[in-house]
Amino acid sequence: MVQYEPVIGLEIHAQLRTRTKLFCACPAEYGAEPNEHVCPTCLGLPGALPVLNQSAVELAVRAALALECQIAERSVFARKNYFYPDSPKGYQISQYTEPIALGGALTIDVEGQARRIGITRVHMEEDAGKSVHGAAGDSLIDLNRAGVPLIEIVSEPELYSSTEAAAYMKALRDVLVYLGVNDGNLEQGSLRCDANVSLRPVGSTTLGTRAELKNLNSFRFLARAIEVEIARQTSVLDGGGQVVQETRSYDPERNLTRSLRSKEDAHDYRYFPDPDLPPLRLDAAWISAERARVGELPRAKRQRYEAELGLPAATAATLTAHPATARLFEAALARLDQPVLVANWIVTEVLRGAELHGIDARFTVSAEQLAELLGLLADGRINGAQAKEVFAAMENTARQPGDVVAERGMQRLSGEALRPLCVAAIADSPSQAAAYRAGKRNILGYFVGRVMKASGGAADAKAVSELLEALLAE
Amino acid sequence: MSESVPSLVSGVQAGRLSAEALTEGALGVIERAGPLNAFLHVDGEGARAAARGLDERRVRGDELGPLAGIPIAVKDSLCTQGMPTTAASRSLTRDGSARSGWRPPYDATVVSRLRAAGAVIVAKTNQDELAMGSSSENSAFGAVKNPWDLARTPGGSSGGSAAAVACRATPLALGSDTGGSIRQPAALCGVVGIKPTYGRVSRYGLIAFGSSLDQVGPLATDVRSAARLLGVLSGHDPLDSTSATVPVDDYEAACERGARGLRIGVPSEYFASGLSPEVERAVRAGLDALRDAGATIVDVELPHTRYGVATYYVLATAEASSNLARLDGVRFGLRVEAERGNLDGLYGASRSAGFGREVQRRILLGTFVLSSGYYDAYYAKAQRVRALVARDFERAFARVDAIAAPTSPTVAFRLGERLTDPLAMYLADVYTLPASLAGLPALSVPAGLSTATDADPALPVGLQLIGPAFAEASLLALAACVEAACPPSTPEPWA
Asked: Which residues of B touch A40 (CB under 8 A)?
């Protein structure tokens, strides 16, 4: 029997995090009452015209640059014509033959192997509204989402398993969230994925007939839908049949894909350049400036944390999972050059109380507070247990760790302040002192323990053992 | 009303005239002009209130705008807040009547500019449905009639606006011109009509026909009145991405500049077969007037003129097929439900009932030329020809300051004469389409009347002046010279 290899390409729609919509001044935010964020333009009223949102262009370019694309100095908005009630103008403004960016790549890691996945193109477009089909057979239209800016990122058909597809989607999400371009929220639909899946005999280099899968609104659904589609196509081919080119929808409840429409039913969208919008021209100097603003991406950061800072892979991954975490880490590191200590505290303490929702992040302490606290710990001014206590005391406050330490009398005893305690400990245990002097050096720990206990834990253990050694040597 | 707008405005500003009296005068003529069917909605109440407000402001000593107290009629294709706006289409009504017309929640930018300038909007004017036509017979609310001869069309699509000015109901009106829809009716009604450079005047709030061609512009009794209105309309609008940022010239000053030193090109292609001898005679007389005023007349060639009609009807209909998709019966306008739950049925029934034959013809044509497999042969090729038409003009304007030609090949034709022959109707715009394709400013100025015969009364002839982009001022300078030789005339019953 012929062995088949799946070939997968993904088309991902990402909502750009702009304040306003792509072609009007209505808020782009999610969650308002139906049809609250509308105006003549996004309602498609006769006579209303679109005006391009510059910040959407910036975000689209930033994403495309992060994906190593070539930015087009001239791109063209086109009308994609189709009738549907949630498309108020009867066309969607998108980009077609001249998109804003072409030809990039995204590196993903699958089972320890790095793979570069080609990006065919990135184009800008507006979102449609939302149809709500009521039980009584009525359909209601909410146009709050109509005109919200999106980018569509089209990959090359270079993914060969559901695992790779999910890894690609995950890596893409990381990059977009990192850049602040998208909030990474799949549930609310700010990131949506369609997958083109085809099979070909192993060893073949031509592509088989593909099915386009819709409605893959979680990483799990994406992987499962691709798996069941691969299984379906395999059984079609094994049974001597042919895969037909069509659009299929994934039904997560029954874990199967079903045909939505065949190629013959495909719309003729009659794309043509939108005469209401002049071609978008981006100047080379502006593109360079945007390139400089992209900065280090999550994967590069992770590699640098491992190679240059000596962090374990798991720690580096945790720190780079959210841009705010990495920013906190780097800000603290700038004040206290102890990567392992800072990283471990962030992973074990800081992230425990942190709230990370999409792009939004809230930590209970600032980088300054954390760095100062860990500085006191590293200098031996407080011990680990005290550090945790101080940490808890300053969470969600503007208090400085030094103030908490002073207020709670945690200042560690060191130097001459230790002398009476050490002298007393030796005087109280003459036989142990004699044993030490006779050469039983490991008994020093006994004296250290006594001193620590007497100081209520406030003594600096290292200083105590040095002083005891000196006193016992007298 | 034989005074020009600048003089009327001075009168209002000085208190010699009242806005209220001008408005009452306009409303009176509009009532008498009922048989013309030029008006779809008359806002007597709103106009009187606005006029009274202006008069009160004058008494208080407030600065009044450059159109203070001037009654104006606005083409129904332009959105007027709270006032019915149908573009003469049933699709923009609730029940098929003009009275149940869609009331926009916003003013077109040009309408806001009119209000800010102190103009008093008295009426919305009848037109060809959605600006598609050359005779104003394609209105869902009946044909407009030419004030010079009620058996004839006023031209179109801005026929109601041209008739309103011709019958002297209002000295000014707004029209829109996609392929000649201001200039041709201006010519056929004996008034001045200007299609500005593409981008000179905002399109925001103009119900789109062919977005890459549409321009709003003035119709006026005389050149100086048109210049005053053009100055008010022109300028950048941040709501229209195709709006130009080029500074606006002083159009009224230009009217006094004269023709001396200007070179005028006369294209032989515009004096070819199909041109009525009476039109040619009047236009040549107009050219003589320009020569007498000091202009130099030279021959120029515009070899791609003959592709204008075909190119225009591919591009304008392609854009229209998409622009009119929003008239779908879902959110506003006429909604005809075939059966519950049948969405395609709703679209089909609403649009079949909402659009007249010519609009349906153009939507089908435009849909076809954009279809997969035909796009390159029609739309893409037409775009290339459009560039050639524009290049013809560029070459000509390297040698001349303006081009002069007839506006329309004939004087006003009889109602019904071309309704069954769309091609004959399309040829009415043969001389106006090229400037539209090239995005250039063009105007029509009256060049006298045809000779009356037993069969035909004397009818107006328009001389068209086409200029380089943003050269409206030169065109006005020349138009003022033509006007000096052929002063504005008013049809008998309305004089």
From this structure: 104-106
